[in-house]
Amino acid sequence: MSIAPDQFFAGLKARGVGLFAGVPDSLLSSLGAYIEDNAAPQEHVITANEGNAIALAAGYHLASGGFAAVYMQNSGLGNTVNPLTSLADREVYRIPMLLIIGWRGEPGVKDEPQHVKQGRITPGQLDLLEIPHWVLDAQSDAEAVLDQAFARIQQDGAPVALLVRKDAFGKYKLRQAQAELSSLSREDALAQLLALADPGDLVISTTGKASREVYELRVARGEPQRDFLTVGGMGHTASIALGVALGQPGKRVVCLDGDGSVLMHMGALPIIGSRRPNLIHILLNNAAHESVGGQPTVAGGMDFRAIALACGYSQYQLASSAEDIARAWPLIAAQSGARLLEVKISRAARDNLGRPASSPEENKISFCKLARA
Ligand SMILES: Cc1ncc(C[n+]2csc(CCOP(=O)(O)OP(=O)(O)O)c2C)c(N)n1
């Protein structure tokens, strides 16, 4: 048994939820896809980061008196702590909302290293935030849980949370066909970029499947692990790259970023531009959170040339094919300062993509050895 996304969605609407906002999560991908397909456009906002979704929920309630449901992976809880504590909390503006949190790394459920601690401390974090919470799993009577949660929302007028276990929701696959930005896959683009990079370049790759592909590409190239894989800390890849560039000004840094990741903390871009680091920032743009189910981002319609140049980057190039990358790379490589190479890619990924066999600690050691050599 599992919870049917359509019934759950109807149950939320029946209880006064008029806005859905959040950042996609793999455990919530069925519910997220159902919302994306079935909520009216004005009822659903995929936000840049989870804190933005809390703020949106607050504004929506202030103006309409209705509730928002804010969905996120528990990794995103950190991004919400400030607006939950100093804005929506019952001791401040007391804004009711329902948080729907995917519980990656739940104790006893095997998961990746970056999810283990976050999974262990999630209920404790909610306790510390004084947010009442209920666990939802495949066996739950979802209607009964929603009744309790909304009774509490009505009583307190403040945020409450549902902590959602793996496989709680039945399958639902995104129906809405989104146009692909190009036919080049992320993995093929990464293979070409790793081959073009110099052996001395310090490579930082972003959260999600991009880092898993980089890991496997190094194995396929018969090379030792040497890249910093940003397995957690989504949205901070470019800032890590800036820190690396500041720590080793004599070396060139190559940052392999995603559009969801860049959007999440886009304020980093003008800071990077202002420091003129020796940094090639590659934006792998599929206009989607492909790693967690392919939910759309707004990056398909953004002018990253204008953004990069306005943020102080010295150069921008666009590529949508292997030939484009081959043409753009020497132009980018010839420049100094922060440079943006936007590579438009498809949403394709291998079903048999593996996970790094080495630990984050081991990856860190190999990266540091190269960086400090
Ligand atoms: C703070 C935070 N929120 C959400 C997630 C879940 N998550 C992991 S990868 C990913 C999508 C990344 O999208 P993008 O950068 O566009 O890369 P793509 O998956 O399309 O390659 C998300 C939402 C996370 N790890 N951390």
Descriptive account of the structure:
The protein is of the alpha/beta class. It folds into 2 domains: 160 residues, Thiamin diphosphate (ThDP)-binding fold, Pyr/PP domains (Rossmann fold), CATH 3.40.50; 187 residues, Rossmann fold. The protein is 42% helix and 17% strand. The protein is built from 14 helices and 14 strands. Strands 2-1-3-4-6-5 form a 6-stranded parallel sheet, with helices on both faces. It has a 6-stranded parallel sheet with strand order 8-7-9-10-14-13, sandwiched between helices. A two-stranded antiparallel ribbon has the order 11-12. The longest helix has 16 residues. The chain is globular. The mean pLDDT is 97. The structure holds thiamine diphosphate.
In terms of per-residue confidence, which ranges show pLDDT below 50 for 5 or more consecutive residues? none
The appropriate CATH architecture of the largest domain is 3-Layer(aba) Sandwich
Distance between the termini: 55 Å
Which CATH class of the largest domain applies here?
Answer: Alpha Beta
**What is Rg?**
21 Å
Multimeric state: single chain
Ligand kinds: thiamine diphosphate
**Share of residues in strands:** 15-25%
Report the CATH superfamily of the largest domain. Answer: Thiamin diphosphate (ThDP)-binding fold, Pyr/PP domains
Draw up the topology in text.
Blueprint: H1 5-14, E1 17-22, H2 29-38, E2 44-46, H3 50-64, E3 67-73, H4 77-88, E4 98-102, H5 113-128, E5 133-136, H6 142-156, E6 160-164, H7 186-196, E7 202-205, H8 209-220, E8 228-229, H9 237-247, E9 253-258, H10 259-264, H11 268-275, E10 279-285, E11 288-289, E12 295-296, H12 304-310, E13 315-319, H13 322-333, E14 338-344, H14 360-372
Parallel strand pairs: 1-2, 1-3, 3-4, 4-6, 5-6, 7-8, 7-9, 9-10, 10-14, 13-14
Antiparallel strand pairs: 11-12
Helix pairs in contact: 1-2, 3-4, 7-8, 7-13
The structure holds thiamine diphosphate.
Thiamine diphosphate binds at residues 23-25, 73, 75-76, 79, 186, 206-210, 234, 258-261, 286, 288-292, 297.
